[in-house]
Amino acid sequence: MIPYIRTYRYLPNIMDELMKDDCHGGRTEKSIRYSAPPVNVKETENGYDIEIAAPGFEKDELKVAVDKSTLTISSTREEKSIKKDLNYLKKEFGKNSFNRSFELPENSETEKIEASHKNGILFIKIPKKAIIQIPVQEVEVK
User: Fold this and answer.
1) Strands 96-103 and 114-118
2) Closest C-alpha among 105, 112, 107, 124 to residue 37
3) What is the domain partition of the chain in residue ranges?
4) 3-state secondary structure the chain
5) For 36-127, CATH number?
6) Higher pLDDT, 100 or 86
7) Disulfide: which of 47, 84, 92, 137 matches 127 by Cβ 3.0-4.6 Å?
8) Are 95 and 76 contacting, i.e. CB atoms less than 8 angstroms apart?
């Protein structure tokens, strides 16, 4: 049985999961190539941190874009070289794509978002806008 969260996250791949091509529990070619990577999102005092597991992806294969209040992380990677004369019994390497989008909170400073890539993890830092404290002003009653 597919857990609920997995069913929701991989909705387009439900039929692929049900009709597996490997009787030993393997995943189909489509579910491997188009599954979304797992993420960690945390809020800190100064902003929000997103970590995306993207093993095997180089930093130039990852795209981070902000459109208004939506942050989108995506990648499409083609297989570099294919040797036609090899007789694979199972082939899971090849084109690999993903796309994840996040709605940013209103207090995000979208102009100052930073991204870095290290050891197969994409790190994204989203700073919070500074909160301006307006001092309480007492008004003299006359």
Assistant:
1) unpaired
2) 124
3) 1-35, 36-127
4) CCCHHHHHHCHHHHHHHHCCCCCCCCCCHHHHHCCCCCEEEEECCCEEEEEEECCCCCHHHCEEEEECCEEEEEEEECCCCCCCCCCCCCCCCCCEEEEEEEECCCCECHHHCEEEEECCEEEEEEEECCCCCCCCCCCCCC
5) 2.60.40.790
6) 100
7) 47
8) yes
The residue type found at 66 is V
Supply the mean pLDDT for the chain.
Answer: 77
Lookup result for tokens 């899971």: 92
Residue pointed to by tokens 């039929």: 15
* Cβ 64 vs Cβ 116: under 8 Å: no
120 neighbors 49 (Cβ within 8 angstroms): no
Q: What residue has token string 């890539």?
A: 117
**What band does 105 get if pLDDT is binned at 50, 70 and 90?**
very high
**Is-contact 73 100, C-beta < 8 A?**
yes
Question: How many residues are recorded in the chain?
Answer: 142
Name the phi and psi angles at 33, rounded to 5: -75, -25
Separation CA 115–CA 61 (nearest Å): 13
